[in-house]
Specification:
The protein is mainly α and 150 residues long. Helices cover 59% and strands 3% of the residues. It has four helices and two strands; from the N terminus they run H-H-H-H-E-E. The chain has a two-stranded antiparallel ribbon. A hairpin with a 2-residue loop joins strand 1 and strand 2. Helix 1 runs parallel beside helix 3. It is elongated and about 130 Å long.
């Protein structure tokens, strides 16, 4: 198949430079759809210059190394994480206790409301029990003589 028969526009320098800047100088890292056109353009003088510049940047980026953190930083991070976990666990238990207290209070209020609604009203007695009342009747000074009423 010829390049022009695939309904794809030929690769120009601007598109080739954008792809080289995005994916680097190694054509194996480029998208599959762009590799064939990129390989054809890379054979030109402009393509070689663009790939050389992208390859220089790739080599510079590949040579960069980050040093491992020292032991003091590592231990301080672990200590801070441990303190944070302990603090979160305490907060969790505190909220759990508060939630349980709220559930208990809600249960007490619901029970009080249920007892208030379900319990029938009790009619008060005519008199209040006090020290003058006996099992046989009222022994107070106002009490009538029971024998006279017979």
């Amino acid at each position: 198949m010829a390049e022009g028969s695939r309904n794809e526009p030929a690769m120009d320098a601007r598109r080739f430079a954008a792809l080289a800047q995005a994916y680097g100088g190694d054509l194996r890292r480029w998208p599959e759809a762009e590799r064939m056109a990129g390989t054809v353009f890379a054979a030109s003088g402009a393509g070689k210059a663009i790939l050389r510049q992208a390859g220089t940047l790739d080599a510079l980026l590949d040579s960069y190394r980050v040093d491992a953190p020292d032991k003091a930083l590592h231990s301080s991070i672990l200590q801070a994480a441990g303190r944070h976990l302990v603090q979160r666990r305490r907060q969790w238990f505190w909220w759990l206790g508060l939630g349980l207290a709220g559930i208990g209070l809600a249960g007490a209020v619901a029970g009080l409301a249920l007892v208030t609604i379900v319990t029938p009203e009790v009619q008060p007695d005519h008199y209040v029990l006090d020290t003058d009342v006996t099992a046989f009747g009222d022994a107070g000074p106002d009490a009538e003589n029971g024998e006279e009423n017979l």
